[in-house]
Design a protein that fits this description.
2 domains; ABC_transporter-like_ATP-bd; P-loop_NTPase; Rossmann fold; six-stranded mixed sheet; elongated; binds adenosine-5'-triphosphate
């Protein structure tokens, strides 16, 4: 569990994180989103005790990071590609990290198995692919068997297989009852991985809700209906409670009724339908709508 209370970070005149309150709960994957410069990394660094809040506080499992006697047993993090001695093997790297935290060799072998590093555990880390390096970083984060995991951009640069692996791992860790806090700029991936979404914009929270609520929140779903009898069908659907903006020749965009209900109403009235397409808003659409005013650097094209 991670709890932030009036958490603030200023760098000179710049307020990177502006008095935010949030709770990241156990048993769920919480996605952390926001435009570049929104303050995500600064927040994660404060959670991990790598940056001091200017004011306010953030705790992990009830205490600030630095007040835990054995923080690696509370929270594990993949913040950025770790500097690993390229000549060392994955196993000897893990053994070295484990030794500094009084963690035994048995746990090292457990995390090697858990992260699928077995076949390459004896190989030099210098020759690792990005995906293997990422697995090693996650293995390090898991060494202390922590209840809370923080993964900053864990799928950055991974191939599709690696992306799926991270997704399944995050889901498995949450299913084990852990708190999983994950940042990513890949919206489609986040939509498949996260249960709950926290969006930051210019240092403030602009959304904190279950994925379903974020997707449904701004406009909801619609159904595109292609029919040669657009105007009469629009009137029929409106009478059933749908919202049908001004019809476009033979295409209607209907909100408020399911595709099945629309087909039933049309059939009952003898209206011909050529096509029915439910349009689901993507997390990317919802994110763009929510962060429209909070993007620090916008392209000239997008500003028009
Ligand atoms: N050490 C620092 N000194 C001064 N300003 C900083 C420092 N670290 C971050 N900032 C500023 O604070 C703001 C938040 O940065 P942060 O890296 O936390 O954003 P982010 O959401 O992680 O962005 P990205 O998605 O690009 O990683 C930015 O405007 C950044 O320029």
């Amino acid at each position: 569990m991670i709890k932030a209370h009036a958490l603030t970070k200023r760098y000179g005149a710049k307020t990177a994180v502006d008095s935010i309150d949030f709770t990241v709960r156990p048993g769920l994957v919480t996605g952390f989103l926001g435009p570049n410069g929104a303050g995500k990394s600064t927040t994660m660094r404060m959670i991990m005790g790598l940056d001091r809040p200017s004011s306010g506080s953030v705790t992990v499992n009830g205490l600030p990071y630095a007040r835990h006697r054995a923080p690696v047993r509370q929270v594990g993090a993949l913040l950025d590609a770790k500097a690993v001695h390229p000549g060392r093997s994955a196993r000897s790297h893990l053994l070295a990290v484990a030794a500094t935290h009084r963690i035994g060799a048995r746990r090292v072998d457990e995390v090697i198995g858990y992260t699928g590093l077995g076949p390459v555990a004896g190989k030099r880390v210098g020759g690792f692919s990005l995906g293997m390096g990422q697995r090693l970083g996650i293995a390090v984060a898991l060494l202390g068997d922590p209840a809370t995991l923080i993964l900053d951009e864990p799928v950055n640069g991974l191939d599709p297989e690696g992306v799926v692996w991270v997704r399944q791992l995050a889901r498995r860790l949450a299913a084990e009852g852990r708190t999983v806090f994950l940042s990513s700029h890949l919206m489609s991936e986040m939509a498949q991985t996260a249960d709950h979404i926290l969006i930051l914009g210019r240092g403030r929270i602009i959304a904190d809700a279950p994925v379903g609520e974020i997707l449904g929140g701004v406009e909801g779903e619609s159904v595109q209906v292609r029919t040669p009898q657009a105007a009469p069908l629009a009137r029929l659907l409106e009478a059933e409670g749908a919202t049908v903006p001004a019809a476009e020749l033979d295409l209607l965009s209907v909100r408020g009724l399911t595709a099945q209900r629309i087909a039933e109403i049309a059939a009952a009235a003898g209206v011909v339908i050529y096509g029915l397409t439910p349009v689901t808003r993507s997390l990317e659409d919802a994110y763009m709508a929510l962060t429209r005013d909070d993007v620090e650097y916008r392209s000239a094209e997008a500003n028009r």
